[in-house]
Structures are given as structure tokens and as C-alpha cells.
Amino acid sequence: MTAGGPVGPVPGLAPAVSVVAAITDGDEHLGETIGSVLDQTERDFELVLFDNASRDRTFEVMRSFSDPRIRITRSGERLPRSEARNRALRFSSGALVKTVVDGDLLHPRCLELQSQPLLDDPGLALVAARRHVVDDRSRVLVPRRGLNGLIGTRSGDEVARKIVRGRANLIGDACNVLFRRESIDAAGGWRGRRDELLDLDCWLRLLHHGDFLGRPEPLAAVRMNGVPGQPGYADRVAGEHHAIVAELSGSSAYQVRVADRAIGAVTAPLGALRRAGLGIVAGRSAKRAEKERERELADA
């Protein structure tokens, strides 16, 4: 796959990459997300847009783009987040898959730089890159987030042990990961048992089917929303991390050691502090955005 290839998949053939977006009431930033996907140097991809029974202008935003690489479908009923992603995935056909949500942004070379390692090494199940955290105006709030200690090729065991020790989603969000369709099919897709850590739950199951590669470049950006600042968010994340650690510790698929769990118990308070800090950043970002909107209305 090269940047100089045809615009869009070759007719009659499945695209090399499917970018899948299951969106629920995401009209505010969806256009920017779609634009960043269409601006990729890698040309052999499709963008599957799945409107999860949105009540805002999400469907209209989707239809406002005229590009042969876009496929749009709509649900007649609102589905849980995991089920919406699985449903959207079924409408795609690429051997490699990336998921995005409204507000996510991809670096122009994201698909190019993440797909090539998967093509070169059949032993890889997924490739992740660092990502920026941006605000409502796409300004960087937290640069180069994630993949601490996970740059380069790692086995599933190594990744699982790092996560148990760090008590954090070191891999990242949907938009900074590219994976094989055969891996997610074998893993059973997304599961609804984790709400805040839906992605981490999926990544760990994908790593039952191959190795991990972490790239040092920030190739995506996630939008800061108000969720990290909401009451109870940090406790929900901590509870889900605890459940994931227990599951990894009891799994025959990963060789998590007693020492890993002991280190994780010591570092757990640090994870809580990181989440609290993210909540503070989210709160400040929301207040800043509100003041900017008020000034714009006053100047209008």
C-alpha cells in the first residue's frame, strides 16, 4: 500500500483497511473526524459510518460528505456501545480495522504507518501509537500520551504484565490502534461487560492471537470531554481495572506473576492520582470552552 495509489478501494476488491465509526449523537465534532480520515496518505481504505439512532444531526453530517470511500448505514434502534461497534464492523470488509468515535482525529500518515508493520509481520495482532489529548477547539492539552514501556514489539504476556503493574490502560483508545479483522473475529468482538475500559478489554483479548507493536509517534488525537471530571468516574475506572487485573491473574493465556500483582497494588494510588489529574484537566477545559462560547455569543 502506498500513498500514490488509487483514491479508494479497487472496485470489486475488499479495501486493505476499514475505518469504522459507530456514532451516537456526535454531530458537533464528527465532520472534523471524517475529514481527518479522508485526508490519509494511505488511499486503499473504506470509511464505514454507522449512525446509532442519533437524535441530533449526526446522520446529516455523515451524508454531507461525498466520497466513494464512505459507506453509511443507520440503526433503527439505539444499541449499547459495544453492540453498535460490532454491528458497524459487520458492514466493513478490510483485513485491517481501525475504530474511531466523534471527536477523534487521525494524523495524515496514521493508516500508512500502522498498516505496514501488520503487512510485514503476520505475527502481529495489533499496532498502537501514542496520541494527543485535545480540547474542544483541537488544541493539545496532553501531548504524546500512552505506551509507557511498550514501544517496540511485545508479546501479549509482556503487555498484560505491564498493565497489571501500572493499573492503567497503557495501550490507549480506539483511534490510536489498528488491528487484524481475523483477530477481533476470533476474540468475539467488543464486549459490554466493561463500560469505561471497553477498549482495553478488547485489546487484551486480541493479544491472545498475536503480538503487540507500539510506535513512538503520536498518530491520533482523542477529544477531552467532561466524563473524566464527572462524579464517580475515577471509582468506576478503578473498579474495572481491579476486575481486569483479577481476570488477567487467573488467565492461563497470560503468565502474570505474584510480583506483578504486588507492584500493581503499590502503584494503584498513582493511577488514581493520574485519573484525578485528568479529571481536573477535563473540568478546566470544559470551563474554558464555555467561556469562549459565551464570548462568541456576546460578539455575534
TrEMBL record:
Pfam families named in the record: Glycos_transf_2
Keyword Cell inner membrane: no
Keywords assigned by UniProt, alphabetized: Glycosyltransferase, Transferase
Limits of the Glycosyltransferase 2-like domain: 28-185
Stored InterPro entries: Glyco_trans_2-like, Glycosyltransf_2, Nucleotide-diphossugar_trans
Highest taxon, organism lineage: Bacteria
CDD domains in UniProt: Glyco_tranf_GTA_type
GO terms assigned for molecular function: glycosyltransferase activity
Family statement drawn from the similarity comment of this UniProt entry: Belongs to the glycosyltransferase 2 family.
Protein name stated in the entry: Glycosyltransferase involved in cell wall bisynthesis
Species in which this protein is naturally found: Pseudonocardia oroxyli
